[in-house]
Amino acid sequence: MISHHHSNNNSANQSSISLNEIQNNNDTHSHFPNSKSNSIESLNSEKQKKLLQKRKSNNSSTKSLNTSVNTKNLWNLCKIEKEKEKKDTNKVELNDIGIESSIFLAGSSEGGKSTLISNIFDKNSSNNVSSNTLLLDYTYRHNNRTKGLNSLKDTIHIWELANGIMFKEFLKIPINEHNINNAVVVIVLDLSKPENIIDEYKEIIEIVNTRVDGLLKSLEKRGSRRPKALTLYSWKKYGNEHPDKEFIHPTIIPSIIVGSKYDKFKNYESEAKKFICKMLRYIAHINGSSLIFYNQNDEAMAQKCKQMLFHYIYRHEAPSNLTDHNKPILVMAGTDSLNSIGLPPNCNATNPQRLSLIDWTNIYETFFKKENKTKNFSIDLSKFPEPIIDNLKIEKDEEYLKYCQKNEKEANEKLKLGNISSSGNSPSEERKFGNIYSRSRAAGLATY
């Protein structure tokens, strides 16, 4: 009875506790202290469990979010890159357009010009190029380049002049105002015929300089700022404190002297090799040309030539110098000096800066005498009269003259538009009128 009565009291107490808790907390304190403490403990434990469950659920959700972020990380990066490119209009245009550059190739007859280009750009081709260049040959190559998220296809225009210096005037044809900003002149000299290489180099570089000087004067008359910028750029590789600055006349278009047929040259006597190397270093130094020796059967030499060529076109890293005459010479323009070149043999002078190009040439010609072969390629057509053919020739000459005048007129109109844009527009706006990239803009485009 007691226990039963106790249980009834407990149930009544429990109901009264719940009512009293709702109505008055103080009453429950006084009448049922033990049960209240138990209920508070149970409530606290339940709250703790709920908190733990919430923490676990939050941790699991954050983990799932992190994994989703990680899976979408690549796309987020792509979006960020694209947004940056949209903000920088110049960067977008540079990334979206491939570079067009030009190579003007000339030099010794049968010196290996075509083979050099084939070895540099055509990896799967054989070393022997069967087709001979007739006069002025044009080809092009594509070079794939990656910049950021874009894959670009650059175009390299290659103009090759045949037959040595016989038709040197034709080298002026491909050199124009649109391509001098990003072009390279490559002069291939046959080292197996050292008696001819100095004259060949001088005549080719003179043609190039004459043509470029005429273009710059024409640009200056129209108020273009390019001539000054290109001239400053040609001096940039020498710096402000070069000791030979007053003796140097660098070409506006970067030039490279390639001494071909090194396999025959390396068998020369040591003194002859030393003098040839000094002479080539001298003419390269005073004209702002780079110098490299090359053998068509040596893949490493072909790679060095390519590295030097791409240094000027795409700002590729320049190869390191090698000035030992017993090894293949490689000297970058702006890194040599008259003191390091030294004096030619049998010379009474004590200061290399006192010697001129004429002095060097006279001493060189005493060592390597020229062949006295006078070839007359002119033909007196009056001895062979052909009225029909002569009339056709006159017609074709007139057509050619009209064609040249038309091209010149179109080029002048384009240049006028370019000058209007360059006078007050931004670089991005100038590009809309067809202006070629400057070397300063092309400098940061290559990632090799």
C-alpha Rg, in Å? Answer: 40 Å
Report the strand count: 7
The CATH class of the largest domain is Alpha Beta
CATH superfamily of the largest domain: P-loop containing nucleotide triphosphate hydrolases
Note poorly predicted spans: 1-36, 89-95, 422-437, 440-448
What distance separates the N and C termini? 99 Å
* Percent of residues in beta strands: 5-15%
Q: Shape, please? A: extended
The H-and-E topology, N to C, reads as HHHHHEHEEEHHEHHEHEHHHHH
Main structural class: alpha/beta
What does the main sheet amount to?
7 strands, mixed
Q: What's the number of structural domains?
A: 2
The mean pLDDT is 77
Quote the CATH topology of the largest domain: Rossmann fold
Describe this structure as you would to a colleague.
With 448 residues, this protein is of the alpha/beta class. The protein has 2 domains: 57 residues, no CATH class; 286 residues, Rossmann fold. Helices cover 53% and strands 12% of the residues. It contains 16 helices and 7 strands. The chain has a 7-stranded mixed β-sheet, with helices on both faces. α1 packs antiparallel against α2 and α6 crosses α11. The longest helix has 39 residues. The radius of gyration is 40 Å and the shape is extended. The termini are far apart. The N terminus and C terminus are likely disordered.
